[in-house]
Known about the structure:
The chain is mainly α. 56% of the residues lie in helices and 0% in strands.
Amino acid sequence: MAQRSPSKRTxxxxxxxxxxxxxxxxxxxxxxxxxxxxxPLQLLxxxxxxxxxxxxxxxxxxxxxxxxxxxxxxxxxxxxxELERDIQSTGFFRNKAKSIRGMAASLLEKHGGKVxxxxxxxxxxxxxxxKTANVVLGNAFNINEGVVVDTHVTRLSQRLGLTxxxxxxxIEHDLIPLIPREDWTIWxxxxxxxxxxxxxxxxxxxxxxxxxxxxxxxxxxxxxxxxKPAAKxxxxxxSAENVT
Length: 244
Ligand code: SF4
């Protein structure tokens, strides 16, 4: 069978994004960042806490945390053990406390306690990687500098045939040319909402999914379900190798 050229494949993927984006926007008109915050600093702290933790749990913890610590200086000055206790229930609390204190100290030292607005400056802060920087730039400053790739964005981008990669940086690299820049931030929120409500990891609801006509994984899941008795169904994701 003839192989499609890379540019034709990119065109097909771009058209798929053009088709699914308005559907997702209509379906989730209120999609937004799920981490409660009232300032760039609070979003930075909440995003660090959200690693390997649910946004709901982070929001419970930050409700008190943001009353106790109101500035970069206060986060930088708190003893490590005390901050660990404050954030313990988010998991990995030793590393997270170290990151938050280090990040806050860098803010004080280099930026007068303010959160900077560029990718380079943000990723130079202790404990801040590209994903965290993208969250802060897109949601605190409305700057579309990249696409946030989390577990939902990874899974749905694969199922929608937009990437075959599993590495977040490579997935972001695949997505950027497909999505209009002004939609980079909302794209992640929309996929996260859809991944939580419909296209779940173990049991995607392809039968009722509004993206089904455009999704190359839908028939793979539906066929697998039709062939296997319910009790023996494998929860595996349709292979990214099967989609283009
Ligand atoms: S059709 Fe199925 S696999 Fe495709 S996005 Fe919808 S729920 Fe996910």
